[in-house]
Amino acid sequence: FEHITIQNTNGNDYAIQFLGGSDYNRFEDCVIRINDANSTSTLDCLVYSGSGTTDEYNTFRNNTFENGSYGMYWYGQNTITMEQGNVIEGNEFLNQYQYGARLYYQSGLNFDKNTITSNSTYGFAYGVYAYYCDNSNFTSNHVYGPEDSGWPLYGMRLGYNDATSFNNPGVVANNIVSIGDTSNTNTTYYGFYILSNQLNNFVHNTAIVRGGGTNARAVYNSSSDFGRIANNVMVNYGSGYSYYDINADPLLGDNNVYFSNGTNLLYNNTAYTSLADWQNASNQDQNSLDIDP
């Protein structure tokens, strides 16, 4: 499918639905659109592949996804039988109400060079929500909302995405997330929310939270075992943390930039008000900086 517009003009139904057994399809340079833009229902999703289906080696490249509740709702079978080889690359996700992309039960997924933004006013939204995507790459994506908008609450939420070995890690790299209402002093925004990801490298990412309360985090990490966390920029212009880590294995971290307008700069099982305190306590991040970039 190339250079065509696929549009649902009626609302309350998908633009494209995969029913299982749909493999090796390619959507390239298409416009995928639905008129209904103010819904959280999966029926108003642009591209839908429901839980329990298997649709493999499909490619979505350089498409524009407009409106809808979700840009993509893409599920495999389960944690035992994951889909293989799907590619979501170079797409624009525009004005989804709740989710840019919600992805589950994938292996070897390549989610690369996508732009995700919205004019939605929904208060509990996600740019990317990806769980159980093993041996996968999330690279060079840009998630952002307008400066006077609270969309999304979570820039990229990544959970239980595991790799098979330290020598062949999953990769979260070169992504830019910029979210948060600059006038907001209460909301808990998360640039990256990372939960129980094993053997992933988190490198060369930029996370900017522009506002929010003391519980907002540019990067939040719980119970993950990173291969490396290096060369990232983690900035919170609100009163929260630049980086917040609980129950995670010791970091292999260096060459990061941390900044927060809050009392505490970062948290790693205890709060640190300065980078020097963290460096002395952990012997990590010896070449990192605490500056406003």
Percentage of residues in DSSP E strands: over 45%
Number of strands: 32
Question: Span between N and C termini?
Answer: 43 Å
- Helical content stands at under 10%
Q: Identify the overall geometry.
A: globular
Helix tally?
A: 1
Radius of gyration: 19 Å
Mean pLDDT: 94
- Uncertain spans, ≥5 residues at pLDDT below 50? none
Structural class: mainly beta
SSE layout:
Layout: E1 5-8, E2 16-18, E3 26-28, E4 31-34, E5 47-49, E6 59-61, E7 64-66, E8 70-75, E9 83-84, E10 87-89, E11 92-94, E12 99-107, E13 110-112, E14 115-117, E15 126-134, E16 137-139, E17 142-144, E18 154-159, E19 170-173, E20 176-179, E21 190-195, E22 198-203, E23 206-209, E24 217-222, E25 225-230, E26 233-236, E27 241-246, E28 253-254, E29 257-260, E30 266-268, E31 271-272, H1 275-282, E32 289-290
Parallel strand pairs: 1-4, 2-5, 3-6, 4-7, 5-8, 6-10, 7-11, 8-12, 9-12, 10-13, 11-14, 12-15, 13-16, 14-17, 15-18, 16-19, 17-20, 18-21, 19-22, 20-23, 21-24, 22-25, 23-26, 24-27, 25-28, 26-29, 27-30, 29-32
Antiparallel strand pairs: 30-31
Write structural notes for this entry.
There is one protein chain. The chain has 293 residues and is an all-beta fold. Helices cover 3% and strands 45% of the residues. The strands form three sheets. Strands 2, 5, 8, 9, 12, 15, 18, 21, 24, 27, 30 and 31 form a twelve-stranded mixed sheet that branches. Strands 1-4-7-11-14-17-20-23-26-29-32 form an eleven-stranded parallel sheet, with no helix packed on it. A hairpin with a 2-residue loop joins strand 30 (266-268) and strand 31. The longest helix has 8 residues, at 275-282. The chain is globular. It starts with a strand and ends with a strand. The mean pLDDT is 94.
